[in-house]
Design a protein that fits this description.
alpha/beta; four-stranded parallel sheet; Rossmann fold; single chain; six-stranded mixed sheet; about 375 residues; 2 domains
């Protein structure tokens, strides 16, 4: 059972049925939102033993647009929320949400679980995906679990550890000259020509990634932090976490929604530029250059969604590659947490803008260090 009313375009408002296969709006190519029935969700929570269950990704099934009976899972989620000792002295309270400890080493596993469950419900046996590496590895693993074949399109400079991880799960890799957006175009052409189900930073993935936010609330005993600091590539994660707090708020589970700081690499920061220029939309950057490959996305799919969150409840900022490199070393040597460069963008940003962050701050450590080391 799922509690979905319909799927709606964020840009033009056009609606689609939940059974339609659509990743972007067919009219304006806008991002899509899945609209839930919160009254039914409240009833489901009331009738269940929700508050007695241990934290897990699938505990929050009533907020997902798939049926839990069909779930494809590698025991993703329930990642630690760790209070910082070394860096914490610069804040009232500082926590790390350790998404690097998911099964394939990144937060992407949460979205893959829901996306591949959706594929199973549609009787799909072949999928394709464009990725900077982390999502490709995650999709490959969940497809292996589900018995689905997959083809992953990667930028030609994808770090070798990520490429090897994808290979070991049995996926086919197609190298594309250029960045993520060139890989995405190649994947779209392949999907259309071969009639293969395309997955990626689309609405079903975003719905799965909401559990980062759900868990933070529960780990703080159903209290919201004051700030969430999140790396941004496509912008899907920060919007998904905001959506999670909004879901819990509408379901009556929390009283406040936190504020958000979105962080991009200075060498690839289209969302930050849009925020700083007071634009209502995100313009692609023509050239990008950053060592943080996971967030090297010149034309972010969910950039407008991320911008919406930051306009409503926060702000955006950039960090230099040098800052991320230094912080990664400190985080590992002082707190024993090994993260990839994109994964420490949040901490680098929190330290850079610490004067503007009050109260309890949670930094999302999005991926494991061995992925680009």
């Amino acid at each position: 059972m799922s509690f979905v009313k319909f799927v709606q375009c964020k840009e033009c408002g056009l609606t689609y049925g939940i059974d339609e296969i659509v990743n972007r709006c067919k009219i304006c190519n806008g991002s899509l939102d899945i609209i839930l029935d919160y009254q039914k969700i409240k009833e489901a929570i009331r009738k269940s033993n929700f508050f007695k269950q241990k934290i897990s990704h699938w505990k929050y099934w009533m907020f997902y647009p798939v049926n839990r009976e069909n779930k494809v899972s590698l025991n993703e989620g329930n990642t630690p929320l760790t209070k910082s000792e070394y860096f914490g002295s610069a804040f009232e309270e500082l926590y790390f949400k350790l998404e690097n400890l998911n099964p394939t080493g990144s937060f992407k596993d949460r979205g893959s679980s829901v996306e591949i469950t959706r594929a199973i419900e549609l009787n799909i046996d072949k999928v394709c995906c464009a990725s900077t590496g982390n999502m490709g590895a995650s999709i490959a693993a969940y497809c292996a679990k589900a018995g689905i074949s997959c083809t992953i399109f990667l930028p030609h400079k994808t770090p070798k550890p990520k490429t090897n991880q994808i290979k070991i799960f049995g996926a086919k890799i197609v190298r594309v000259k250029g960045k993520y957006n060139q890989a995405l175009k190649a994947c779209e052409r392949f999907s259309s020509r071969k009639n293969v189900y395309m997955v990626g930073d689309f609405p079903f993935r975003g719905e799965g990634e909401k559990s980062v936010g759900f868990e933070i609330v529960e780990q703080l005993k159903f209290n919201s932090p004051d700030w969430i600091v999140c790396p941004m590539g496509n912008g899907t994660l920060i919007y998904s976490i905001y959506d999670a707090f909004k879901d819990f708020f509408k379901a009556g589970l929390i009283k406040e929604i936190p504020r958000f700081l979105g962080i991009q690499a200075e060498g690839c920061n289209p969302i930050v530029k849009a925020f700083e220029k007071n634009l209502d939309y995100v313009k692609p950057v023509k050239k990008s250059k950053t060592l943080a490959s996971a967030i090297d996305v010149p034309n972010p799919l969910d950039g407008n969604k991320a911008l919406e969150v930051l306009r409503k409840r926060g702000f955006a900022g950039s960090v230099k590659d040098k800052e991320m490199v230094e912080i990664r070393k400190e985080l590992a040597s002082k707190e024993g947490i090994f993260a990839e460069l994109a994964g420490v963008a949040s901490l680098a940003g929190a330290l850079k803008f610490k004067e503007e962050l009050n109260g309890r701050v949670v930094c999302i450590i999005s991926g494991a260090g061995w992925k680009d080391f």
